[in-house]
Amino acid sequence: MGKANNYDDYIDSRHSSKPCLGYCMLIFSALALSVGFLFLILFIGLDDKAKVKETPSAMYQKVRQLAKVGQSDHNKISKKNPVAILMYHYIREVEDKTSDELGYSLSVSPTEFEKQMNYLSKNDFDVITFKQFLQGEIGERAVILTFDDGYEDFYTSARPILEKYQFPATVYMITSRIDQGGYLTKNEIKKLSDNPLFSIGSHSATHPNFFTASQENQIKEIIQSQTSIRDITGAKPADFCFPSGQYSPDSLKILAQYNFKTAVTTEERLAFFSDNHLALPRVRVQGSLGLDGFVEKLSDFFKSYEASATSPGI
Ligand SMILES: [Zn+2]
């Protein structure tokens, strides 16, 4: 023990202040370098995360592209693919269909709506935005979801289901009805527009007939609705929906003049990139369809396109 103590003393005596300083400096430098590297790695990592956070739509795009990997001959993105622009109104239960026939035909129950979205998800439909459509990023069996009038049940009933499936959608607001019973509130519109899945379009200010309305009145309706939406969301809407699907050639010129990029009608067929983007047709989803009717209607439209696309075309 005594020897060992002496040895320890001897070792200790060799560790005089000078060599200790050298060792300490070495250790300190190594530590400083490691900490520096750690900060560098952390910084790059955080920076990447911040970039993704800034552009959630880019993240959505990536997920969409990744989802396509492994589906070799399926869901090829092409400008030539048709799109079913689905037209919904209310997502709500209607108790008595006989007393309110119109209300019934415009209403899809939340349960049926969930089944329809589940069907789209399970069957590899490509649910896209108008922006993607305008860029020609159209997968096979593409769908755009649209909701007319701006009913509050979009926020309470449709939104949670769309968020579950991560399906984007456009809501066309009649801006004079904002904050009125049964319609979206300013607060809800703001929350929707802050979510990259949802986009707020214009459905005019007071829902007049654009086929019979004067040019002045059409301009007034468009400016009013644009301003109301911009005041809430901070951006002018790019997508328009003609009230009851009515429009004149003047309407298209006015929409272009006021920088609208798309407008939808009630003409029923699949839409194509080659169509006039300011008079796009849609596919109506009536309340009476149910899941079977929905599946049948959608597959009939796509089948008739596939048949015409593969026909010799004499
Ligand atoms: Zn409407």
Automatic annotation (TrEMBL):
<keyword id="KW-0472">Membrane</keyword>
<dbReference type="GO" id="GO:0005576">
    <property type="term" value="C:extracellular region"/>
</dbReference>
<protein>
    <recommendedName>
        <fullName>NodB homology domain-containing protein</fullName>
    </recommendedName>
</protein>
<dbReference type="GO" id="GO:0016810">
    <property type="term" value="F:hydrolase activity, acting on carbon-nitrogen (but not peptide) bonds"/>
</dbReference>
<dbReference type="GO" id="GO:0005975">
    <property type="term" value="P:carbohydrate metabolic process"/>
</dbReference>
<keyword id="KW-0812">Transmembrane</keyword>
<keyword id="KW-1133">Transmembrane helix</keyword>
<dbReference type="Pfam" id="PF01522">
    <property type="entry name" value="Polysacc_deac_1"/>
</dbReference>
<dbReference type="InterPro" id="IPR002509">
    <property type="entry name" value="NODB_dom"/>
</dbReference>
<feature type="domain" description="NodB homology">
    <location>
        <begin position="141"/>
        <end position="314"/>
    </location>
</feature>
<dbReference type="InterPro" id="IPR011330">
    <property type="entry name" value="Glyco_hydro/deAcase_b/a-brl"/>
</dbReference>
<feature type="transmembrane region" description="Helical">
    <location>
        <begin position="20"/>
        <end position="46"/>
    </location>
</feature>
<keyword id="KW-0732">Signal</keyword>
<dbReference type="InterPro" id="IPR051398">
    <property type="entry name" value="Polysacch_Deacetylase"/>
</dbReference>
